[in-house]
């Protein structure tokens, strides 16, 4: 029995491996979400630096204004 693993031991190892994989996926989701948040903040800062009036506008107004401005191009 020293070299043989019981079914219970194998199940425990499989469960631990599954949990480790789930934890790794969760960490990756957090990293991706943080990267997206950072990108959105930076893009918003660039937008506000070019168009300061956007700071006081609602997102829907900003979207409409950008659409109007790019239609003229």
Topology:
Elements: H1 7-50, H2 59-71
Radius of gyration: 25 Å
| Residues in helix, % | over 70%
Q: How are helices and strands ordered from N to C?
A: HH
SS strand fraction: under 5%
Instruction: Indicate the mean pLDDT.
Output: 93
Number of strands: 0
What can be said about the biggest beta sheet? Answer: none
Helix/sheet category: mainly alpha
Distance between the termini: 78 Å
Uncertain segments are none
Give the overall silhouette.
rod-shaped
Number of helices, where a helix is a run of at least 4 consecutive DSSP H or I residues = 2
How would you name the oligomeric state of the polypeptide chains in this document?
single chain
Question: How do you describe this structure in short?
Answer:
This protein has 73 residues and is mainly α. It has two helices and no strands.
């Amino acid at each position: 029995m020293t070299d043989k693993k019981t079914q219970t031991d194998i199940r425990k190892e499989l469960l631990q491996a599954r949990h480790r994989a789930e934890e790794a996926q969760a960490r990756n989701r957090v990293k991706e979400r943080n990267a997206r948040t950072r990108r959105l903040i930076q893009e918003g800062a660039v937008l506000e630096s070019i168009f300061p009036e956007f700071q006081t506008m609602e997102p829907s107004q900003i979207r409409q204004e950008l659409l109007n401005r790019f239609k003229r191009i």
